Amino acid sequence: MTDQLLALLPDYGAPLLGLITLLSCLALPVPASLFMMAAGGFAAAGDLPLGFTILAALTGAVIGDQIGYALGRSGAGWLQRIESRGGKQAMALSRATSLTRERGNIAVFLSRWLLSPLGPYVNFVAGAARLRWPTFTIASATGEIAWVTIYVGIGAGAADQFGYLWPVISDMLGLLAALTVALLLALRLRHMLQLHRKLGHKKRR
């Protein structure tokens, strides 16, 4: 399926890329990062206009984020049903909930590009938690700019090495994501320990 869609990219170009990034922001299993790198490669070869390609990818991502936020704002019960079913989606939703509650707009920004697998679920949770819409939108847009620029730029700058570089980049981003989650968990643990010490000190007094 992915190969078939990639084959359509030179013909349908930016509109197809915008649709792909939109769908990925709604938790649908489409490899948007891969498509952006491929589009960057096609742009470098002169098959696609680079500026329009970046704009289409960014527009699709921002619209997808807004739809996800709106769904979360109006469908908290739906999110609870996802959690109750268990599985990978429930795990991602649980992590996104913890991250969003503790970090708010920073969580939205990081989940656009560094923790992108959590991005759609952060959208839902941000809406359900009534995170202020201007705050969400600014964090979303700036994070999506980073995401689109990184991947389209990599594809445009390394078109000939695309097949070799993608697995390497994917592994590196996975490592960075894991390190970021570990850091956030460490900060949370530190906060809980500090709170525990304060409560213990108050009881002794």
From TrEMBL:
| Subcellular location as annotated | Cell membrane
Q: Supply the InterPro entries for this chain.
A: DedA_domain, VTT_dom
Give the matching Pfam families. Answer: VTT_dom
Q: Which residues form the VTT domain?
A: 30-156
Residue ranges crossing the lipid bilayer per the database entry: 12-38, 50-71, 136-158, 164-187
Predominantly, its location class is membrane
Topological relation to the membrane, as annotated: Multi-pass membrane protein
Know the name of this protein? SNARE associated Golgi protein
Native organism is Thalassovita gelatinovora
